[in-house]
Amino acid sequence: MDDVVLVINSGGRDAEWLDEVTGELQADLSEIGGLHVSRVTTAAAGGQKSGAVEQIGQLLVSSGAIGAVVWSIRDVSLKFLERTKAESITIKKGDREVTIVRPGLAQVDNAIEKFGDLLADE
Length: 122
Known about the structure:
Elements: E1 2-9, H1 15-30, E2 36-43, E3 52-63, H2 70-84, E4 88-93, E5 96-101, H3 105-120
Antiparallel strand pairs: 1-3, 1-4, 2-3, 4-5
Helix pairs in contact: 1-2
């Protein structure tokens, strides 16, 4: 089974906001068939009651064939970034990672302008 970790960059927002949008992304990704999505946990520090601590802003995504759903994960991630205004999502597998960054308004305006130029050439 393939596993990747998704890490949400909150852009400096508070932990409560990050926890809330992590749950939203978890729900969105859970709708993709063949994926198992859970919160990332780590061992609790000495003196804490629980044996595991949830890592806010991180999700573990598992699938028997994650390559088959990579485009769906990308699409869900982009929609999530636009809806929540989070800065980015970093997807990690071992020591490799890729970051999906929410496009800024200037990037979107530039893309729309290029699209208009493309249509004008007809």
